[in-house]
Structure formats: structure tokens, C-alpha cells
Write a structure and sequence with these properties.
The chain is mostly helical. The chain has a single domain (3-319), classed as Farnesyl Diphosphate Synthase, CATH 1.10.600. 76% of the residues lie in helices and 1% in strands. The protein has 17 helices and 2 strands. It has helices spanning 3-6, 11-24, 30-40, 47-59, 64-88, 99-103, 105-125, 129-152, 160-184, 190-217, 220-223, 229-232, 238-246, 249-261, 267-276, 279-297, 305-319, and strands at residues 92-93, 96-97. A two-stranded antiparallel ribbon has the order 1-2. The protein is globular.
Length: 322
């Protein structure tokens, strides 16, 4: 099932979110407009704003202030992308040159700061302290996740728990915040809010696990970035850790060296070792477990079109090739 079909029940609302995004990013500073327009118009799945809308749609009618919060969540995500690409020295995202490649690192960092601060301006306008608490906490934890990931670079000895902690902080936390917001702004019960938050956390975890699989097995044209980016940066992802634990001595030494040294010299051999050890299937299996738990968390909620879309989205997160 395609992502656009999954989001069909909120198609009009997603267009409204795009309108809010474009209006809210305007600045009198020309460079801010150029960089912000480039990153916003470069595509992307718009998953996080869709999660706000879909989770709200489970509990009631989607209102204009939901569009505002959906845009806020996308701005937080966009700011992290701008900063991430500088830290990771990435050259391609979503099939296009990264903003830092075109405009320079300084512009990307500073415009990322602008997008962050604009997000907080917008969330204040909603005048809901609970909303601000959720988004402020999520933003802080995402930053912690970025630092944890930095500390793990070139470390082939981290545990699976260390790896999972990074993706819970860096990726899944914003998914969780998006789905929790949908429940909060519709005044769902505490139990239902927590169920929706668990769905988001599980979905975000599954999503990142598959991203790590695709980095070693996808097609660059499909995934929108260069294959092996994680290896090039010396990131110890779960497929690599599993293959290193379960491979023969030559494979273990190969993968350890790739993580500790970074670079793409041994990419073909590393990807072959990852396949031969069953690492990709193992991580896909974990992602499927997370997606199943995500669906179970919201099984009791009203069976709206938006609820079905959330179930479909969990299945898509595991089956996708991009």
C-alpha cells in the first residue's frame, strides 16, 4: 500500500498543513527563505505531521489548530535534519543535495536554529501548557539522542541496548510526541493518550530499524541517499552489530574495522557479510515485532478511517523500500 493512499483520509488536512508551513517560514532575511524553502520543498514523507492528524482523527474532528501543531512537529524534524546533515557531513538527502552542500554549514546550522525557534513561537500561540511540555521534552530528548549517537561513532563495542536508546531518543521520541499530541488536543483519557504515545514510540523504532536495514541493502535512488552512509560515518547500527556477533572471524574483523575506521572502502564486503549472517532478516524481524506492538497498543480505540490508516502505516513502515 502506498503512503499517499494510507494518508488519503487526511489529504485535505495535509494540504492545509503545507500551507501553514509555507506561511510560517517566511522571513525578511532572504537566505532564511532560500534555505527553508529548499529543505521544505525537497520532498519527504511528512510522516510526523500526518501522525498528529491521524491520531487526532481517531478521537474527533480535525481542527485548524491541529494543522498548526502538525507544522510545529514538522519544523522540529526539519531543524534536526539541517543540523544532522552538518554533523554527519551528508551530501544527499531525499535524492537531492543537502542544504549544507548548497548553502554551507554555517547557513544550515543558523537556519536550523531559526526553524526551531519558529516552531516554539507557533506552539506558544496554541496557549496549551500540556502541548508545550510535550514538545519541549521531545526536543530536549532528541538533542540528547544526537549527542549519544556522536559518542557512539566508531565504537564497535556498544550493546544493542545502547543502540536502541539512541533511536528511541533521536527518532522515536518525535513520533511518540506527534501521536501523543493528537490525543491530548482531543482531550482523550490518560489511558488512551498513553496508548497513542506507545504506538508512536513503537512505530518510530520500527521505522528507524528499517532505515538501518535499507542503508545496507536498499537502492540509492529509492532511499534518497547514498548507500552505506552509516558505515561511512562509522555508525554502529544494529545490522552491523548483529553481523559482527554472529559472523566468522574474518567477518567480525571486517565489520569491526569498518565501524572503527569509517569510510566506504569495504562497503561491498561488509554488505555481503551482513547478508550472509542473516542480520538483515533479524533486524527486519525486530521491526515487525515493534510494528505489531504498535498496532496492539491502539487496538481498543475507535475504528475510524484514521485508526485504520495508523494500522496500515505500521505495516508500511516495515514493508517499505524507501
Amino acid at each position: 500500500m502506498s503512503l499517499s493512499l494510507i494518508q488519503s483520509s487526511i489529504a485535505d488536512d495535509m494540504r492545509a498543513v503545507d500551507d501553514v508551513i509555507r506561511q510560517s517560514l517566511h522571513s525578511e532575511v532572504v537566505l532564511i527563505n532560500q534555505v527553508a524553502d529548499y529543505i521544505i520543498n525537497s520532498g519527504g514523507k511528512r510522516l510526523r505531521p500526518a501522525l498528529v492528524l491521524l491520531s487526532a482523527g481517531v478521537f474527533g474532528k480535525i481542527e485548524p489548530h491541529h494543522h498548526m501543531l502538525s507544522a510545529v512537529v514538522e519544523f522540529i524534524h526539519t531543524a534536526t535534519l539541517l543540523h544532522d546533515d552538518v554533523v554527519d557531513e551528508s551530501a544527499m538527502r531525499r535524492g537531492r543535495a543537502t542544504a549544507n552542500t548548497l548553502f554551507g554549514n554555517a547557513a544550515s546550522v543558523l537556519v536550523g536554529d531559526f526553524v526551531y525557534s519558529r516552531a516554539f513561537q507557533m506552539m506558544v500561540s496554541v496557549q496549551n501548557m500540556r502541548v508545550m511540555d510535550i514538545l519541549a521534552e521531545a526536543t530536549n530528548i532528541i538533542a540528547e539522542g544526537e549527542v549519544l549517537q556522536l559518542l557512539n561513532i566508531n565504537d564497535a563495542d556498544i550493546s544493542d541496548e545502547d543502540y536502541l536508546r539512541v533511536i528511541h531518543y533521536k527518532t522515536a521520541k518525535l513520533f511518540e510526541a506527534a501521536t501523543r499530541l493528537g490525543a491530548v488536543i482531543c482531550q482523550a483519557s490518560a489511558h488512551d493518550e498513553q496508548a497513542m504515545a506507545e504506538y508512536g514510540m513503537r512505530l518510530g523504532t520500527a521505522f528507524q530499524l528499517i532505515d538501518d536495514v535499507l542503508d545496507l541493502s536498499g537502492e540509492s535512488e529509492d532511499i534518497g541517499k547514498n548507500l552505506g552512509d552509516d558505515i561511512a560515518e562509522g555508525k554502529p547500527t544494529l545490522p552491523l552489530l548483529y553481523a559482527m556477533r554472529n559472523g566468522n572471524e574474518a567477518q567480525r574483523n571486517l565489520i569491526r574495522n569498518a565501524i572503527e575506521q569509517g569510510g566506504l572502502e569495504d562497503l561491498a564486503a561488509v554488505t555481503q557479510a551482513v547478508k550472509e549472517t542473516g542480520a538483515l532478516d533479524y533486524v527486519r524481524g525486530l521491526a515487525k515485532q515493534e510494528a505489531t506492538l504498535a498496532c496492539q497498543a491502539i487496538a481498543h480505540l475507535p475504528k475510524t478511517a484514521q485508526h485504520q490508516a495508523l494500522i496500515d502505516l505500521a505495516e508500511f513502515s516495515v514493508a517499505r523500500t524507501y
